[in-house]
Specification:
Number of strands: 0
Mean pLDDT: 75
Number of helices: 7
Strand content: under 5%
Structural class: mainly alpha
Order of helices and strands: HHHHHHH
Shape: elongated
Low-confidence stretches: 1-12
C-alpha cells in the first residue's frame, strides 16, 4: 500500500520535482528507467548544469546590461502587494489582559508564603525515630538510630557547602 501511495505522489508532482527530490536524496523511488528517456536525460543534464554553476562561479553566465535594464523595468511595472490592515478584536485584547492578570495573581499566590517571612507554625512529623514503637525492640536498634541522628543531624535535609574539602 505504501508503494501505491508513492506512485500517486510521483504522478501528481512534476517530473522535474521528482528528479530534484531524487538527486537531493529525499525520494527513494527508483526513477532510473525514466531517466533513460530523452526528456529524462535532458532534465538530468539541466539539473547537473545548475548544480555545477552554483558551485563554480566561472561557469555561471553574467547577465548583460540590457537584460538587467529589462528586468528592472519589469519589476517596476509589477503591481505592489498590499496586505489588508490587521483588525484587533476587542475580545482578543480583553482575553490577553485577563491572561496577564491571571499570571500575576498566580505568581503572587505562590510567592506569598515566602514574602511574608512568618515561619509556619505547623510541623508535620511522619515518623519519629527517637523512640521505638514497642518496648520489645532491642537496644541495638536504638543505638543505631541515635548514631544515625548524630551523623545526619536533626534535619533530613543536609546543608551543602561549596568550599573544597569542607564536608569531609
Amino acid at each position: 500500500m505504501q508503494t501505491a501511495a508513492k506512485s500517486v505522489v510521483i504522478t501528481e508532482s512534476s517530473w522535474e520535482e521528482s528528479v530534484s527530490a531524487w538527486m537531493d536524496g529525499e525520494d527513494s523511488d527508483d526513477i532510473l528507467p525514466s531517466l533513460l528517456s530523452k526528456e529524462g536525460r535532458q532534465t538530468w543534464d539541466t539539473y547537473h548544469l545548475i548544480g555545477d554553476s552554483l558551485r563554480n562561479s566561472d561557469l555561471a553566465l553574467t547577465p548583460s546590461a540590457a537584460f538587467q535594464a529589462r528586468l528592472a523595468r519589469a519589476l517596476d511595472a509589477e503591481l505592489p502587494i498590499v496586505a489588508a490592515p490587521r483588525r484587533r478584536s476587542p475580545l482578543r485584547v480583553g482575553l490577553s489582559g485577563l491572561a496577564v492578570a491571571a499570571a500575576v495573581a498566580t505568581v503572587a499566590w505562590v510567592a506569598q508564603p515566602y514574602l511574608t517571612g512568618a515561619p509556619s507554625t505547623e510541623v508535620r512529623v511522619l515518623a519519629d525515630a527517637s523512640m521505638p514503637a514497642s518496648a520489645s525492640d532491642d537496644s541495638g536498634l536504638r543505638d543505631y538510630l541515635e548514631a544515625h541522628r548524630q551523623m545526619a543531624g536533626p534535619s533530613a535535609v543536609r546543608q551543602v557547602s561549596f568550599d573544597v574539602g569542607a564536608g569531609r
